[in-house]
Amino acid sequence: MKFAPALIAIAALSASALSLAQPADPDDCAQKRAGLTSEMEKAKSAGKDAHAVSLERARGELAVSCSEPGERVMSERRISTQEKKVTQAQKAVDAAEKDGKGDGAKARAELKKAQAELERLKRDAAKKEQKQKPKPAQPKPENGGQPPAPAKP
Question: I need a labelling partner for 111 at 20 to 30 A (CA). Which of 5, 25, 87, 90 fits?
């Protein structure tokens, strides 16, 4: 049982590394990647091979979640979650108006806030889709982009 504390420590460190592999915001992928890389180098230099392996695995998972499909999935999840919040807020407004109980104004304010956040998430997703779509190639002019030669009289 001499190794039990070491195994517990490795398991805890692995769990913390895996939590790093799922960024809350796709914009901080590079920062998290750099953090994992430096932490992995420290673990290797300290001879903590098991910890370095778990960090390497976390970096691989980060690469997947930060890829274009991973970002799209994360964005879709955020939008879906926010849509549920809007639905719940609408139900709260309806209940407040129907029963006359509760604060209808507060419920409407929460609904408005949830709707604004949903619109923001959708706008951000649309912007990212536009950035990721390749621009159509423009056909090259037959004369290689040179202005037309003047007509000879």
Answer: 25
